[in-house]
Amino acid sequence: MRVLVVEDEQLLADAVATGLRREAMAVDVVYDGAAALERIGVNDYDVVVLDRDLPLVHGDDVCRKIVELGMPTRVLMLTASGDVSDRVEGLEIGADDYLPKPFAFTELTARVRALGRRTTVALPPVLERSGIKLDPNRREVFRDGREIQLAPKEFAVLEVLMRSEGAVVSAEQLLEKAWDENTDPFTNVVRVTVMTLRRKLGEPPVIVTVPGSGYRI
């Protein structure tokens, strides 16, 4: 899942990004509304975690732009105000969910995951295919009943492949969904991660390489 965190309190923004990355999400971070508009014009995000009171361009205007562009991106709006009227106004602008500060990180993570599921065709909370069972909420993976320990990027790649339901996923698509914008697109990080993932999943191999196209399960 690709997430953009937009928050002018840099310590909070970086803490949220670090936590979401530990949950196997690809996360970009910006600290003002103008930078947010620049990013959403370049990258496809599943979810934007958007502070409402932003410098340069207000969070409301960022949210309106996402809606205006007709993007499938979901918006989780954050604010220091817990007033019901503010929450209603944020939802009327086009936000998909609303979370007042201070918040529990576990709740934010759950809301981000729930919104991420709404950007694509609805799938069951636990994904199963070819003997593999992947639970995004619990960060658990099993193959034929055997639990498999995966690093965050390995988990992210496997989740993208599982969600594709047998369709071929290109290396570029994996790079966009599982890594943030600081990753060099010319590295072999995708190929190396897929190789490691194959090894951990064991025999017989379930990740198929489609020459010139990508990978599928």
TrEMBL record:
Quote the DNA-binding region ranges, renumbered to this chain. Answer: 124-217
Query: Which keywords does the record carry?
Result: DNA-binding, Phosphoprotein, Transcription, Transcription regulation, Two-component regulatory system
Q: Which InterPro entries match?
A: CheY-like_superfamily (IPR011006), OmpR/PhoB-type_DNA-bd (IPR001867), Sig_transdc_resp-reg_receiver (IPR001789), WalR-like (IPR039420), WH-like_DNA-bd_sf (IPR036388)
Name any Gene Ontology BP term: regulation of DNA-templated transcription
- From which domain of life does this come? Bacteria
- Does the keyword Cytoplasm belong to this entry? no
Q: Is the keyword Protein biosynthesis assigned to this protein?
A: no
Q: What does this protein do?
A: Member of the two-component regulatory system CutS/CutR, involved in the regulation of copper metabolism. CutR suppresses a defective melC1 gene, encoding a putative copper-transfer gene, probably by altering copper metabolism.
The name on file for this protein is Transcriptional regulatory protein CutR
